[in-house]
Amino acid sequence: MNKYKIIYLILLFISWNGITLASSTDSIKIISYNVENLFDYQHDSLKNDSSFLPEGIYHWTYYKYQTKLDHIAQVVVNIAGWESVPLVGLCEVENNCCLDDLCYRLKRFHYRYLHYESADERGVDVALLYDSTKVNILNSKPLQINLPNDYTRDILYACCLLNNSDTIHTMVCHLPSQLGGYSNTEYKRQIAKQRIQDQIDSIFTTSSNAEIVVMGDMNTSPLNDLEGMYNLMLLFQKSGQGTHKYHGIWSCLDQFYVSQSLHKKSIVSIFSPDWLLEEDNQYLDKRPHRTHIGYKYHNGYSDHLPIILTITK
Fold this sequence. Notes:
By secondary structure, the chain is α+β, with helices and mostly antiparallel strands. Helix content is 25%, strand content 32%. The protein is built from six helices and 18 strands. Helix 4 (182-206) links the parallel strand 7 and strand 8 (211-217). The N and C termini lie far apart (39 Å).
């Protein structure tokens, strides 16, 4: 067992035994994390999940599933430290069973979750974990994206009341991939972003100073392309940093947009401790320590790095 898992287990042990430190009320943290195919190991007859079964091409087993859950929990615990992160947006989650098992591992943090089954063929959805002692969900719904002759994941919208004082509108997104080529698929992402924009406009119609956070895997480089919103990942992209590495090039597929009311109060960071990375022998430097390389099990965390939004009060 490596030292990071020992630290993770110590933190969980202390938390589960009711020992807590004074919590900070000066800021709010939000995590966005593409966890790379969090599938259980049982077949869902309504989804094309055959690849993630024991007899599938990934040979996905109970042990691998449990290890995957441990890894995701380890990331959340290490970011949180001694107190919970109130909101955790997740991409690539199969179903409620996965979320129940993940929340159990994080039970000291009193996480509940929002998740809606989408029309995605594989059953890969987005979800939002929230600490029920800090967050009340005032409203939530899936925002469906209507693509011509195709299906994709919904956007998860939630209006959250934090600490009984701050109302934040959140959207968790995993936009259509570039599979098939960037140019051939860009129209799909534009349709999805228009759906996001429509929801933003609707919120601003009710409250022009609303606090809005859009997060998730946008499957493209960061742009300031949502009206009334600022993309906080632009500086990372310009400096060559990123959350995902493909053919030796880092990109910021994972992004946070915030409304003007949050812009000057917001700081974003990429969570990249050594244990989430490994040597990139082909392209040099480091790369995310992922769960699979091709179809081969690699016993890592994800092919994406998590990002953290810190909002000061």
